[in-house]
């Protein structure tokens, strides 16, 4: 599920792809390792401290706003790079912050993955596929991290392959990446302002889906 969940276009995998094109595979992989580290921490919380997580609605509301601002900034700087051929890099991603810490930070402020993994973990508990044992938790979390890394690798190496084919027109790729970030920002804004689903509502929705699966 982690591998498949990493394949749809999203903020982190597109960011990894853009870093891979601009700074090379090593930095892109470090970014991915940072992002999956935060994801694995969130999964661990979903396994052992979900009652506490449920009560942190204000924190996650703030993180939703911060996520929206960052996605908008990523879109802006991608379009800026497309409009300025001599500036082929997204300055928000290509900064002095180590790639691992950048990935860790960007993933940590994205709370949408908590309800997702809480739902899947609960389903696996219900079907007795995942047992409440430390060894099972470790294997489960390792598998999630590996799946996320492999999913990001598809974008990293795929992005570099595409970039090599259009070496004389990197602006096209920057426009595409900027468009993905812009659409992601619109989806984030839609969830926040139109559907108005806060974190607790998402968790409640996840519970309903889990209860349905029990039947």
Describe the structure.
The protein is built from 10 helices and no strands. 79% of the residues lie in helices and 0% in strands. The model is unreliable at 209-215 (pLDDT under 50). It has 215 residues and is mainly α.
Task: Produce a short descriptive summary.
With 215 residues, the chain is mainly alpha-helical. The chain contains ten helices and no strands. The radius of gyration is 18 Å and the shape is globular.
The helix/strand order is HHHHHHHHHH
β-strand number = 0
Q: Mean pLDDT, nearest integer?
A: 76
Straight-line N-to-C gap: 22 Å
> Number of domains in the coordinates?
1
> In percent terms, what proportion of residues is strand?
under 5%
> Low-confidence runs (pLDDT<50, min 5 residues)?
209-215
Q: Count the helices. How many?
A: 10
| Overall outline | globular
Rg, Cα atoms, Å: 18 Å
Which structural class fits the helix and strand makeup?
mainly alpha
Helix amount: over 70%
Please outline the major beta sheet.
none
List the helices and strands and how they pair.
Layout: H1 2-5, H2 11-23, H3 25-48, H4 50-54, H5 57-83, H6 99-108, H7 113-126, H8 134-165, H9 170-194, H10 199-214
Helix pairs in contact: 2-3, 2-8, 2-9, 3-6, 3-7, 3-8, 5-9, 7-10
Relevant terms:
215 residues, mainly alpha, globular, disordered C terminus
